[in-house]
Each structure stands twice: as structure tokens, then as C-alpha cells.
Write a structure and sequence with these properties.
CATH topology of the largest domain: Nucleotidyltransferase, domain 5
Mean pLDDT: 77
Structural class: alpha+beta
CATH class of the largest domain: Alpha Beta
Distance between the termini: 90 Å
CATH architecture of the largest domain: 2-Layer Sandwich
Low-confidence stretches: 1-17
Number of strands: 10
Strand order of the largest sheet: 3-2-1-6
Helix content: 25-40%
Number of domains: 3
Radius of gyration: 27 Å
Strand content: 15-25%
């Protein structure tokens, strides 16, 4: 008799599991949202964990006047080859491969980007020696050479003196950081006018519209020997 009484309970259990199509969709969407939020949180923590901060003592030099309502950020693409970047060749020291000034209007969020050619010949200010850097006397040289002699602070000073722009912050990214950021946004769509085969940049691309992942994007921005 006990066995016979168990049947209605099983039937009742089955009855409670008969969800409508809308309920099933709601359950699936909720589960996906939870998974996505956990994945996003993990991605965010991984990204934040890869960011280090540094303090630049800007009181050591005479600075241009700041403009109220404008924030200027020096963006540096570093060619450092230490750590994970060692696979991209051997180069002593560290220089900005690229330098941009991002000028942001804090009221409306509008931003203007100004590129500073790395081989621009300028009058460089002197920099004191610091840990890991020998310092330099005032001299004429490429604008990106300041960081080799005095680190980020020396480069910051050089950019301010050459441009007359008051910098508020800096952001520096190495090869691996660039690659990871491109992958984080799902790649970059590019239209390649002609096929590229650049052994020095480890890059082979067909012509045409295509989505470049982080590795190919890094190779593309570093490629110059095969593209004239």
C-alpha cells in the first residue's frame, strides 16, 4: 500500500515541473544573466588586477598653467621587452612607441586626441638620475628618448615643456596590455588594402575587410618594413 501511495506524490511532483514556455524563457534568461554577471565580474577583476599605479612628482619642474574644465592625459604605448613582452624581441631600455595627448572636456565628455610623433626632434629638458635611470642633461633629441634616461616623470616633463600643455595624468600600456585590450572588446574591424607579409612583425594578413584579434592588431600597428 505504501508503494501505491507514492505514485500520486510522484505525479504531483511532475505536475509542478510543467512550466509554461514563458516561464522556461524567464528561467533561462535569469541563468544566463547570472553567468554573464559572474563572467563580467571576473573579467573586470582580471583587468583591474593588471593595472599598477605610479606617482609622478611634478613639483620638480616649472609647469604650464592648467585650463579649468579640461583634463589632459598623456597616453604612452611602451616598447618595453621585460616579462611577458620578451617574446617581441630584445631592446635595451624603454621608449614610447606611440604618444598621444587626450584632452577631455570634463563638462560634456568631448575628447580630442593629438598624436606626438616619437621621432620628433626637440629641445629636451634635463632630468635627475632616479632608480634604474641615469638621468640626462638638457639636450636636443627625439621626444621619446626622455623616458629612456629618466622614466615616466622625465617623459612627462619633456612633453609639457615641448607642447606647453599641462598634463594631469598618464596612462601607459605595453604590448601585452594592448593585445589584451583588443581581445577584451572582441577585436577590431579593419580593411586591409593589400596583403601583408611582415616577418619582423610576425604578421600575415589577406587583403579585405576582417576582424583582427589582439595578436594581429599588435602586429599590424608594429608593422612597417613591409608596408613602406
Amino acid at each position: 500500500m505504501a508503494g501505491r501511495r507514492s505514485a500520486p506524490r510522484s505525479s504531483g511532483a511532475l505536475g509542478t515541473s510543467r512550466l509554461s514556455a514563458a516561464q522556461w524563457v524567464a528561467c533561462v534568461v535569469t541563468a544566463l544573466a547570472i553567468i554573464a554577471s559572474l563572467g563580467s565580474y571576473g573579467w573586470y577583476q582580471g583587468l583591474i588586477g593588471n593595472i599598477t599605479t605610479a606617482q609622478v612628482d611634478t613639483d620638480e619642474w616649472d609647469r604650464p598653467t592648467s585650463v579649468e574644465g579640461v583634463m589632459n592625459i598623456l597616453i604612452i604605448g611602451s616598447d618595453v621587452r621585460s616579462g611577458e613582452n620578451a617574446e617581441y624581441g630584445e631592446v635595451e631600455g624603454e621608449r614610447p612607441d606611440t604618444m598621444l595627448i587626450a584632452s577631455i572636456n570634463v563638462d560634456n565628455g568631448a575628447a580630442t586626441l593629438v598624436n606626438l610623433p616619437r621621432d620628433l626632434m626637440v629641445d629636451l629638458p634635463g632630468c635627475e638620475a632616479a632608480e634604474g635611470y641615469e638621468g640626462m642633461q638638457p639636450q636636443q633629441g627625439m621626444i621619446n628618448s626622455a623616458m629612456t634616461f629618466g622614466g615616466v616623470g622625465c617623459q612627462w616633463n619633456a612633453v609639457e615643456q615641448v607642447t606647453g600643455v599641462h598634463l594631469d595624468h598618464f596612462l601607459m600600456m605595453d604590448f601585452v596590455g594592448f593585445k589584451d585590450m583588443v581581445d577584451a572588446i572582441g577585436g577590431v574591424e579593419m580593411c586591409i588594402p593589400e596583403p601583408i607579409d611582415d616577418p619582423k612583425a610576425h604578421l600575415v594578413l589577406d587583403a579585405g575587410l576582417q576582424n583582427l584579434d589582439g595578436e594581429d592588431s599588435l602586429g599590424f600597428v608594429r608593422s612597417r618594413y613591409s608596408q613602406g
